[in-house]
Amino acid sequence: MSKSKNEVATDVITSDRRNFIRGAGAVLGAGALASFTPAANAVSAPSASRSAFVTSSDSVLAKILSTKKIKFGVDLTFAPLQYKKADGTPTGYIVDLASKLAASLGATPEWVELPFGSLFAAQAAGKFDMSGISATIKPERAQTVLFASYPSFVESNYVLIKPGSKLKKLTDLNSSAISIAVVVGSSQEAAAKILYPKAKLKKLSNTAALADVAAGRSDAMIVGEFEIAGALKNNKGLKFLNVPPVFVDENSFFMPAGDYDLKNYVDTWLRYETSHNNLAGLWDKYVGNDARKLGLQSVSVTSAWSK
């Protein structure tokens, strides 16, 4: 029985396909087939018997999990974020957070105290495992250290002014007759250079800068809202410019550059603590409630899914 025209056409197409596949196989050879063969050193899926923490052997995270100890780099002169009780015990908003982070790893915290401006170089030199405080996520700092991806707090920056000051608005600060105390190495120092180029900047430690403006030796100091309630309480006559924030910073923990195992853990921990309102609760306890009583903007870090 002879084939119809449609059947003949189908046979031709099928034959062409077979010839194409044979030709392709001859050209590509065994190399092509090898590309579809699992490599001998491919990473297999984790088994149930493996550790809950799968880390690179050179990660700080692996060391923390092994030794059950974690060294935090801190400057404990920024009450109420991080400071010492009368008996010398570290406390404050960020110290509480860092302690909770250590506990989540089953580790005992050790506090390595250094001036704020020295912390980034010290981290790069391996003087401690990660920061036990949070710092503004400045791009130039990210050339030296690795920041967590999520903020531990949001800092609204205001201007403290000396007792008896006649300053009324932010533009009054941009004058050669004005001296502004700034914490050396801080985001406030960087911002003041740009915003008030005519002013004289006095680069000091945080404690010294507060004392300088309180004594009238400096005209002003740019500070986060967290410091203002305490500064007004402890320094008679000290005031602040009652205007919107000069700028707002995001701050977070930092760790050794390139240590993404540790970063991934800290990111996950921060997301969990944020979504459970633990950051917001601690912030309001140490900072938010007092700052808002003064009419200051103070933002609690909460989940984007919260209403």
From TrEMBL:
The keyword Repressor does not apply. It holds the Pfam family SBP_bac_3. The keyword ATP-binding does not apply. InterPro entries: Solute-binding_3/MltF_N, TAT_signal. Coiled coil: none annotated. PROSITE patterns: TAT (PS51318). Gene3D superfamilies: Periplasmic binding protein-like II. Keywords: Signal. Residues 69-290 form the Solute-binding protein family 3/N-terminal domain. PANTHER family: GLUTAMINE-BINDING PERIPLASMIC PROTEIN (PTHR35936:SF38), MEMBRANE-BOUND LYTIC MUREIN TRANSGLYCOSYLASE F (PTHR35936). This is Unannotated protein.
